[in-house]
Structures are given as structure tokens and as C-alpha cells.
Amino acid sequence: MLPLHLCSALVWTSAIMLLTRSYRLYEFIYFLGIGGATQALLTPDAGIYGFPHYRWFQTFLAHILIVSSVVYMTAVERYRPTWKSLKRAIIALNIYAAFVGVVNALLGSNYLFIARKPDIPTLLDQLAPWPWYILELEVLALIVFVLLYVPFAFYDWKDANAKRPKPNEPIRTDYLDQR
């Protein structure tokens, strides 16, 4: 069992992000961590283990910590994603998926569930059969990423409109005298 499922890798990168305060990791974890961990919390893969087994607690705790680390960096450290962050996250996800696809082909594994759908019921069951669901996942990832960015886009739009002078309003120049 290699830590190649998205959330397994994100647990480690979240810890590194918190220790190093890396903005580049934040960009990646913001979109993939919230999007992926939320889906995993909705349809957890704890295997044959249920409550109160250790694996059940470990599954929920790991995914909650991924989301919590990003919320901490956003709320406390004041990090925030940008449109470029969204683009970089999509590119990084595809590079990671290509790498994991090669590993899957070599080992006969199914990390990221890109070789086949998982054996347990998940949201993937609502998508087309393999390999078509991978394309649907690309579209869904883009939609989720955009939705995760909407609050920041709205804030940017609101902030830009607040700084723009109103029609027929004189443009302030008194701040220039303070140099």
C-alpha cells in the first residue's frame, strides 16, 4: 500500500505545508484537499472496517485534518487562492494522475481509482463506465475548483468595484499631496 491515493499524499503535503508555510503547496491543497477530502468524507473507503475500528477513525481524522489545514492557512495565515492557483492545481492534478497511471500499469494497482471504479459504492458509480468517467472527473474537478474559488472571485470583484470611482464623482487626488 503506497501513499498514492490523493488524500494519502495530501496528508503528508498538508503537514509539510503547515511546517514550511508553503504557498505553492497551499494552492494545490486548497483545491484538491477540500474537493477530494470532502468527497471522501461523504463516501469513505474504510474497507471492511466500520465504527469503532481504528481504520474508521483514521479515515475520518485524516480527511478532516486535510480540510482543517487549508482552513487554517486561509483564515489564520491569510493565504488565498487566485485564478492562477486554480490553473496550477488542474495542471498539477493531471501530472500527478499521469504519474499514478504509470504506477498503476506497472503494479496492477488502482490508485486514484483511474484504472477502474472502486469495489465499494462511491459517487463514481453515478458516472459513465471506464475510461469515460475519467473525462467526467476532469470536468467535475474543474467545476469543483471554480466553485471553491467563487468566494474569492466575488471578494476580488467587490473590492475592485469599491475602488472604482462612481460616475460623475470627482477623482480623489488629495492623497498625492501627502508624498
UniProtKB/TrEMBL annotation:
Q: Where are the transmembrane segments?
A: 25-42, 54-76, 88-113, 133-155
The residues forming the signal peptide are: none
* Database matches in InterPro entries: CHP02206_TP0381
Keywords noted in UniProt = Membrane, Transmembrane, Transmembrane helix
| Name the record gives this protein | Conserved hypothetical integral membrane protein
Q: Per the UniProt entry, what species is this protein from, by scientific name?
A: Candidatus Moduliflexus flocculans
